[in-house]
Predict the structure.
Amino acid sequence: MMTNEQVMRYGRHLIMPEVGVVGQEKLNAAKILMVGAGGLGSPSALYLAASGIGEMTIIDPDVVDLSNLQRQILHDTSSVGVPKVESAKKRIHEVNPNVKVNAIQDQLSNENVRQLVREHDLVVDGTDNFQTRYMVNDACIFEKKLNVYGSIFRFDGQSTVFCDPNGPCYRCLYPEPPPPGMVPSCAEGGVLGILPGVVGVIQATEAIKLILGKGDPLIGRLMLYDALAMKFRELKIRKDPECPVCSAHPTITELQNYEYFCGIAPEANGESGQAQEQITARQLKEMMEAGRRLTLLDVREPQEWDITHLPDAKLIPLNDLPDRMNELDTADDIVAYCHHGMRSAKAIGFLQKMGYKKLKNLAGGIDAWAVNVDPEMPRY
Amino acid sequence: MNHSNASQVEPLKQIEMPVLLFASLKDAAGSDQIMVRLSYPSATPMTVQDFLAQCGQQYPAIAAWLPHVRVAVNCTYADAQQTLTPGDEIALLPPVSGGTL
């Protein structure tokens, strides 16, 4: 039974025949697992809470960083340094105190994923990495739960509903992950702050429709959104009859080692497979002060260079490296850097293959320099 | 039509197909649409697999991606053996990891 406060609060739902009292009671009884309280999780959690979802479990290991606030509207400036799940819980209770929020500050892992998925009606996936994508997908297949998927990159977003018995799962689309470092993350490639707002709200819309059992869900359809062109496009996607996890004869029937599967096992090196020498920001500073002759290679994009760069560095964006390699001398000591050390690791892997030997990667990128060497340097 | 390759038993058909790119592929190619010239024996239909091979030769900047992208033909996901006909709309979709936590 709804209280008078709830009848008033959900009145605009109650007067629509597609929701009504019956539908609202379904929402009030629903339990949703939110993976991630970041860009996608923020708008979806806010609207799901406002719509009266009964119970939401939010799992995220991180604390709020100033650089999150450009898009992660669950959190505000006063929350910087606070665990995201705590900040989320506080904000959700301000929106709707009827919602029970379980805040878990942890990684989703093989140890907790199946039980968490099992205990909820559906999953809203807002993670930022492939290993968690595959883990959530497999757990949803094993536990027979729907996975409301969203992903974003720069100005492009995607959303669909995976793991329906009659529709595809994530592995039907992408049976294998791409090599590590190939697909840039939002931290590397950037993302328009409002983009996850659109995609996260599409995810929340689908979650609400699935709970109500109304409308046409995004099962077997992948919605693509291009914010620059302001275009939506829909692709039909099919279940793969050979899918290793969701077909009639699966070859994967339990959780895997997803870090290994995605090529980020601990011993993984750059794409050349050779070991890569790391240098810390402080060590680099000492080398520079000692007057060691070296080439500082910045492999970021020009717009990142404009924000900040190391003195006397040389800018060759990663994608231009094959064409501009001749600007680098194999005889010189080269220290490559990027924002956080991923792209420069790729650059070094490439240069190793091309016969360069005297290479070092600045561990943690220019961000580590800003933190450990030059506190005046802007971080982004 | 270019039928210059006389050693071929079958004459080669040549067509240009517009290909839509998404997400990080746009950045790799520097454009959201590319034109791919396809040549194939006129009696044998061109498959998605053939298309990917020729696409990679003409656009080295995205060649490394092609084993990892999904191909959609006329707004429907296609497998490697699906045949193509002139006028088909091809889209290439790389996997997208983000999310931003």
User: Anything to note?
Assistant: Chain B has a mean pLDDT of 86. The first strand of chain B starts at residue 12 and ends at 21.
